[in-house]
Amino acid sequence: METVLSRPLKMTTTGLDASLLSFTGSFSSARKFKFPANIRLTVESGCKTIKAYSSTSNDDSNKNLMCASYGRRGLVFKATLPFLLPLHNSIEGLDANAADEYFLIKEEVKKVLSKGKAAGVLRLVFHDAGTFDMAENSGGMNGSIIYELDRPENKGLKKSLKILEKAKSEVDIIQPVSWADIIAVAGAEAVSVCGGPKIPVQLGRVDSMVPDPEGKLPQESLDASGLKKCFQGKGLSTQELVALSGAHTLGSKGFGNPVVFDNSYFKILLEKPWLSSAGMSSMIGLPSDRALVEDDECTRWISKYADNQNLFFEDFKNGYIKLVNSGARWKKSL
Ligand code: HEM
């Protein structure tokens, strides 16, 4: 069996973060986690040929060589791509290689993602990225969630990661992708498939090889000032706290249709249905959702988003981009 170090070493194409190469840390602790160990084995079998070309540059001739070595599926992808060019060329601001990769990841994610799975996948993004601690410069969007699935706050996320495992192994056959990148793209797709804004995601995050420090995600029992403080520590403003909390419009907490991404969350928050004794109203929302609408500054944003869905979409998009870039280490500097 290969060690957990083998995959990142194979990713040493150009400019891989030097700190990762010099990693000598706790393999034994990483091995303890059953889920990632399985993932790595799957990835290993899919990536055999990458090894031979991993130390070369990323130019086009090289990509053709790589595709040749990936066998039929790689060739089919390469051959099909020109017909899809009008689509993938529309990914603004990306060079051709990055656009290819982005397109490939999105296509594989779309194959495994349905509306019913979107909420869990979006939550996965927050639980990977939301560990970021600016002061300690730790955590963030680094794929470390794969080592943290047994933590109580991550209950239920194993199945969301399992869904993405298939997409990741398919992408890995053509071009290795980090967990951090695939989760970030998948969360954006989850929003989009449910009718939310289209969110462009920068690629090139390097995965961490160890779990992030514990206790960094906000607890649902926090009041508004606790939530604000927690988000501030991650470089996120009150406005971003409110906009990003709008993700709870998806899922089963009672904010409208569980598979439709819209501004129902804010409309329903303003009604405070949990104060009513009628039916299931008292079950709506988490304590942290209810806390937001008890705070004047948060309520100003809640009202704006309840009145103007386009503004919510725009601010959610920008907040999401910031979230998935939090604490990320990049193959190449941005
Ligand atoms: C503000 C602080 C936050 C707290 C305290 C919090 C906590 C929680 C909790 C306790 C749940 C319920 C999990 C369950 O059903 O077992 C949940 C669900 C969810 N959270 Fe958050 N969350 C926060 C912010 C966010 C952010 C910023 C996002 C994404 C941008 C997010 C995305 C989601 C989604 C999509 C669900 C529904 C999951 C499902 O139904 O499968 N959350 N959150």
From TrEMBL:
The keyword Membrane does not apply. GO terms for molecular function: heme binding; lactoperoxidase activity; metal ion binding. Its cofactor is heme b. Pfam families: peroxidase (PF00141). The keyword Transferase does not apply. Belongs to the peroxidase family. Ascorbate peroxidase subfamily. This is Plant heme peroxidase family profile domain-containing protein. It comes from Nyssa sinensis.
